[in-house]
Amino acid sequence: MNKTLFRIGLLQSVFFCFNGLYAQSTDSIKTSKIDEVVVTAYGVKKEKKSLGYSFQDVKGQALVDAKENNVTNALTGKVAGLQVVKGGFGPASSSRINIRGFNSFEGDSQPLIVVDGIPINNSAGVKGRSQDGAKNNDLWNPDTDMGNGLSDINPDDIETISVLKGGAASALYGARAGNGVILITTKSGKKKGGVGITYSTSLGFEKIFMKPDLQSNFAQGSNGLPNLPSNLDNTNSWGPQIDGTDMKVYDNLKGFFRTGTSVQHTISFQENLGEETNLYTSGNYLYDNSQVPNSKYERWNFMAKMNSNFGAQKRWTTDVKIQYISTKANNRPNGGLDNNTYGSVLLMPRNIDIRDYKEGMTENNVTQRWITNNGVNPYWASYNRLNEDKKDRFLLSGYLKYQFNDWLSADVRLGTDFYSLDANAKTWTGSRLNNSYNTSQEKFYENNYITSLNAKKDNIIGKWGGSLSIYGQMMETRTNAIYLSAPNLTSPNFFNINNSVGNPDIREVILNKKINSAFAAAEINYDGYWFINATARNDWSSTLTVENRSYFYPSISTSLVITDMLAKINGTKLKFLSFAKVRASYAVTGNSLEAYELYNTFEVKKDPNGNVTADRKKILYDPNLRNEKLKTFEVGLDLRLFNRISLDVSYYNTKATDQLINLPMNPLSGYEKKKDQCRRSAESGN
Question: Tens digit of pLDDT for each residue in 522-559?
Fold first, then answer.
């Protein structure tokens, strides 16, 4: 994939990406901060001019100003080459992030999310309901959109977000960072005037901003004629012409969806506790009363973070964070044909007013009235096809560093991301939909243990300086879930799994995955204007066979600051050219398999008579599969003119090999798909 990106800045930066168009007015990058220090992979702070890859950061205040309930959506238009795909209509729906295009046919193309040095789970959309991780996201019967993990973060707690775009920027994170990395640094305690307490509140309103163009000339029917008695279920709007006498045109989107409201309250306390100890605590409450009738979302977010320097000569540094998030959602959005209220309302005949079908439909256990026998009244669905869920999530991290001398240090970092999710869904009697009940419980955790030894010294030999960091990491994830479904109830509207007609559907999911890693990063620089960086990482994944589980990811990058070089060699300083840098990089990154995608196993079920059965899964696996690889080459130019105008041009080429893909198979083989690899694929364009 060949692409050229331009970023142009004027005053407080306006960015253009000529692979699509992005515009931004923000203070996330100031042209005057030429020697700005930024946070890169694993919390390493570097001068921005030393980076040989594309890097962009966003200040936390810009996210707060966006007034988005989901912080993912606040990134829209703030980073060149980053696309946010918002989820379905309703509160707490998931949003996806894509950086520089899609790099995988089957795998997740989202970047890795790292908060305070610890990766967190950002799974988006529907949940897998079976051991092979299959997700039902089709048109006819999709699962509920459960939101994305990043939406749990409170924007007011964020200090900065750094976006690592290129392969060289993210290669140090290995297989999980094949699509880039988003580094989030939360706030630390700072000395504030007064008692250090800050309170803020916001009230927001939402309405449909854009609507598709619809014809307003024809009523319900087909071919210019009204429906015949034998075809009353036809909802086409190509019947008799609407002449304005006995028929009117109605805006049913406006009639059905209300004005949504959201309110947030945030209180924080930050202070210096002594000379070298900082404390930051915060609490946040969000209530979203959606545009969709009878749909709402609540989120509580509490965080406490303390960092301190202590010991002889302040050689010890520690940072501890505890974060708790509790969310509760009623009637999350669904996709598909019958479940999506937006689609149902949008496609109504133009001469029918949906408000005529509201009376008596906004309560449980009523028989619906609707324009067709086989359709579902959106008002009835909002109050009789219900779902609710509650999630408790903990993000815990600890960091300990010891500074041996002015050039050598060692540190250890621990972190966990844990959540427990309880959900259920009920469909009452009163329509053609089955009177059903579903309930589920999920528990997930991801633990990371990271240690490193770091050395950095300038002027080691003459004007040559350098740094070296050696890391070790262990990552483990585990998912335990059980899904219970009663597709039809024996006693109407008695929502209990044991009330199922026949045996209830029971599915248990257990997913385990581990990755052990050893990696290193090195930098050499000459006189502060020429920098060469290299990384090397080897992962050992539990999801691959012994022969293939070890894989290597290298990268190399360089940057040359032309203005600093000219100034130091012959004292040349150009008035119009404030800063000029050229950079180049090459990296190999990729994606690994998910858990249990190597061997063909059976799924234990029960038949209608209650006998235990072992069913073959629908995907044929191949134990010889390997990890995906992405090879990226990038060059770029960074110019700043008159200290007010910035121009950042990037060209990159990405080639993907060993792409994982599900190939369709003849169902008579006993399988529907085969997990295979496309040995090489590439996209090109400018």
Answer: 999 999 899 999 999 999 999 988 888 898 989 999 99
Q: Give every CB contact of residue 259 below 8 A, 6+ residues apart in sequence.
A: 205, 206, 207, 291
Q: How far apart are CA 222 and CA 238, in angstroms?
A: 5
pLDDT tens for 277-314 read 999 999 999 999 988 899 999 999 999 999 999 988 89
How far the first Cα of the chain sits from its last, in Å, is 9
Count the alpha carbons within 13 Å of 265 in the hemisphere toward its beta carbon: 4
* Selection from 686, 677, 589, 537 nearest residue 103 by Cα: 589
- What is the spatial distance between Cα 652 and Cα 633, in angstroms, rounded to a whole number? 5
Q: How confident is the model at residue 148 (pLDDT cuts 50, 70, 90)?
A: confident
Backbone dihedral angles phi then psi of residue 347, each to the nearest 5 degrees: -90, 10
Q: Which two tokens stand for residue 258?
A: 């209300």
The runs of H, that is alpha helices, within 509-654 are 562-570
Contact yes or no for 188/307 (Cβ under 8 A): yes
Question: Which residue has 């972190």 as its token pair?
Answer: 415
Strand partners, 292: none
Strand partners, 439: 424, 484
Give the model's confidence band at 582: pLDDT under 50 very low, under 70 low, under 90 confident, else very high.
very high
What Rg, from alpha-carbon coordinates, does the chain have?
Answer: 28
Identify which of 486, 585, 584, 590 has the alpha carbon closest to the alpha carbon of residue 537: 590
The pair of three-digit structure tokens given for residue 176, joined into one six-digit string: 């999980």
Whole-angstrom distance, CA of residue 528 vs CA of residue 525? 6
* Angle at CA of residue 652, ends 642 and 627, nearest 5°: 140
DSSP E strands: which ranges in 546-672?
550-561, 577-591, 602-606, 612-616, 619-620, 628-641, 645-664
Q: Which H/E stretch holds residue 21?
A: none
Q: In the chain, pLDDT over 70 holds for what percent of residues?
A: 88
Burial of 519 (0-12, 13-18, 19+ CB in 10 A): buried
Write the CB contacts of 410 (distance below 8 Å, at least 6 apart in sequence): 401, 402, 404, 451, 452, 453, 454
Global confidence as pTM: 0.86
Burial track 583-617 (b if 16+ CB lie within 10 A, e otherwise): bbbbbbbbbbbbbbbbeeeeeeeeeeeeeeeeeeb
